[in-house]
């Protein structure tokens, strides 16, 4: 699904990504961990076609990132720190708008279905500006998957969420996985990473420090590997 070779990114005099080699198969759910400034979000933004790499090659779904950005954008749903929602629109209006942008057939029915899936049917026609952080994030999740993407890109999706919103988000991710969707999630939340990811990538100083399958789904295992790679604690 994703093939990255010798990816670099430099901003002014700072090297953010330093030769990333990474291959991700269709249907994998991958957590990207690392300290602040390691290059995690930059890596995700390159894949999301939001910033141009300085060097290297990126192929997504068989498309070259440099030549086929329009085709690549059709493949993924992206959930950044901001919701990308229109505050004065209701969940229904937002999702119909984004559904139409992606050419979703019967966007209204799809929007209603998704609002129900994230547990906010009662607020279907209320302006998003009146929503709590957790409620906004639920609709943002729905926005990211309105077109049933093959690839889901999530940047710190659990930040600021209550337990109910966390449960709904994880359920959506796992349901997407059952459909064969590939998920990349940048996170600092080890508990959620252990719960929903089957593979972990640790990024340090712009390079991949570790890449492993989390077989036992234990937070303790994840913590141990992270501390070893990032802080040198064995």
TrEMBL record:
Residues of the ABC transporter domain: 2-230
InterPro entries linked: AAA+_ATPase, ABC_transporter-like_ATP-bd, ABC_transporter_ATP-binding, P-loop_NTPase
MF term (GO), any: ATP hydrolysis activity
Keywords: ATP-binding, Nucleotide-binding, Transport
Family membership noted in the UniProt record: Belongs to the ABC transporter superfamily.
PANTHER family: ABC TRANSPORTER ATP-BINDING PROTEIN, ABC TRANSPORTER ATP-BINDING PROTEIN NATA
Protein name stated in the entry: ABC transporter ATP-binding protein
Gene source species: Neobacillus notoginsengisoli
